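Reviewers asked in the last cycle whether our approach scales beyond single polypeptides. To address this, we selected a multi-component target totalling 570 residues and predicted its structure end to end. The input consisted of the following lines:
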Amino acid sequence: MEALQVINLTKHYENVRAVDGISFNVKKGKICGILGPNGSGKTTTIKCISNLIIPDSGKIRVLGEDNKKSLNNIAAVFEGTRNLYWRLTPRENLRYFAGIRGLGGRELEKEINILLDRFNLTDKKDVVVNNLSRGMQQKVAIAMTLICDTEIILLDEPTLGLDVQSHLDIKNILIDVSYELDKTILISTHDMKLVQDICEDVVILSNGKIVAKDSIEKLFDMFKTMTYEIVLTECLSEEKKSSLMKLNRAFYIINNGSKLETDILNEKDIYRIVDDLKNLDIFIKEIKQKEQNFERVFLSLTAGEVD
Amino acid sequence: MKKYYYLIKVSFERTFKELIRYKFNTISNIIFLYALFMAMFLGLKSFGIDFGVSPLDMGSTLEGFIIGYFLWAIMMMTYSGIAYGITNDAGRGTLEQLNMSGISLYIIVTIRGLSDLVVDIMVSIVLLFIIMFTTGHYLEIRILSILPPILIGIVSILGIGLICGGLAIIFKKVNSLLDIIQYFLIAFIMVSPKNKFVYNLLPFRPSSDKVMQIILGGQTLKDFTINEYAIMIGNSLLYFILGIIVFNKSVTYAKRKGLLGGY
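The resulting structure, written as structure tokens, was:
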């Protein structure tokens, strides 16, 4: 069953076409990622679904109903440290945001306790949000979407600016929320690792258009290449870098020129690469095959449009 | 109906919690209003009060001035609460959350404005007693008599707050305009146009008149005619409805232009 349907959505700002006739669906209980370079239309799409931006044309359906009539089925957390009242505690914030949706009573208080416990915020329930860490604030914001008891949760850059532990916590929370609570989650992000780890489906936008939409697995299959990392004996000089760029092969120069990465379709190609490098007097210290990386799939799809 | 009950409940809870947690702001507001009053009061006293102004206007009497200031303080706090409340929410991103609640945004901000109003009236009454104590000019304050005209009249100020809040959503940096309007509110209490129609059209003016008549003229609620009540209610409804229309149009415009919350 489709929880969310975006049909031919278009939005212009003055002469800029932010979103250009995009269509995609998200199945109930699934996590879908929206990826794209800056300015590709991710946030505009999320805000159109949330009814914070009125599109020029197109339709958005939530559980088959127009999104404007089903706001009680959409909750969202937007980018950054916004979304919450900083001088209220997590408990008071949850109570307030449930209250403005017309929810309250003893059952709600029980739900708040369960959520605070689930998010390991029980011991912080009476601390004002202003005094919580960035990771905890983000947990409270996500808890806020859950207390509203909506079918769909929209998250705009949920892991932006988080440390490693908070990133991991948020990732686990989202998996937990999707599987255990059967919520449909749409995530707009630059975080490829998050998408690779938790999303079943992905929509990739570029210049307001969809350049790919499919399951993560199928997108990996579509770009089935082997990525090799080549560690060099010394950093590449500018002259060697430019010679390298003249070869008929894409190299990603990393670590200030001490490493190269390249994608190959055929294993025999690695011997040709070794020969090419030898001819340029570039000496190899080590060669290793890398795991397939969604970032590379994304870069291939958006073809250098990443900031 | 129950959903509005919860909305009102959490709005009051938030107002009181923030009043306590932003205590520096709360106390400095009271001190500012008190200091401003004392400066004006002492100035008025030292220059004498022979300006030939009608007793029901700013007051050729110091009592009239005190009550005029009290009404302005309520108006100013109500207006600020709603207009700055919207700009603050837009600035911190919570306006987007309010807009997604499924309850119309103008209802949420109006109910919040009303909860702020209750606090404002309480603060204003405290301020009034401090002023009376300091100046030695004691007024016979019949709270239950002055509350109905204040509550009716303040609805017009909620409307003006909604208009300014709507403009703030679109134009963002309108703090200067919001500040100026606070002081324009003084005119609504002081100015007495000869033309009765214009007089009755000024926001809050019919109600502030009645409060003056109760406190200074010794009148009671029973002394006012149905017509006078109708003018008070009509005046408030006019500005409140205008406020809702402008606010809703502004929100729709902001949504079309992608301006909602984009500070």
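Chain B has ten helices and no strands. We regard this as preliminary and will revisit it once experimental data from Aim 1 are available.
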